[in-house]
Design a protein that fits this description.
The protein has helices at 3-9, 17-25, 39-50; strands spanning 10-13, 28-33, 54-62, 66-69, 72-75, 79-86. The chain is α+β, with helices and mostly antiparallel strands.
Length: 98
């Protein structure tokens, strides 16, 4: 897997209450990933970018919501999230700027 693809796979970390709880209790990290990324690509990207050992990758496809603006209907784009389980001695620290 080339370096360019590794940088395209992970879009951004997901920082929510649930993802913070998973990071503390379950030693997991949550990322938004591109729609065509495979589990193997996600694992390789996390291991190379953060220098950690990945045990498992679970992927969730989220459908875009239907939104309405007056009489006009529209649809948001769907997203894809990856839940990455790390080994016991690995941690990813995500700093959040308020």
């Amino acid at each position: 897997m080339n370096q360019e693809r590794i940088l395209q796979v992970l879009l951004e970390p997901v920082v929510t209450e649930k993802s913070t709880r998973l990071a503390d209790q379950g030693n997991q990290a949550v990322f938004k990933v591109c729609r065509d990324a495979t589990k193997g690509e996600i694992k390789a990207a996390v291991e190379s970018l953060f220098g950690v050992q990945v045990l498992a990758v679970n992927v969730v496809n989220l459908k875009g919501k239907i939104k309405r603006h007056g009489r006009f209907h529209g649809k948001r784009n769907g997203t894809r999230k990856a839940y990455v389980r790390l080994s016991e001695d690995s941690r990813i620290e995500l700093a959040v700027n308020p």
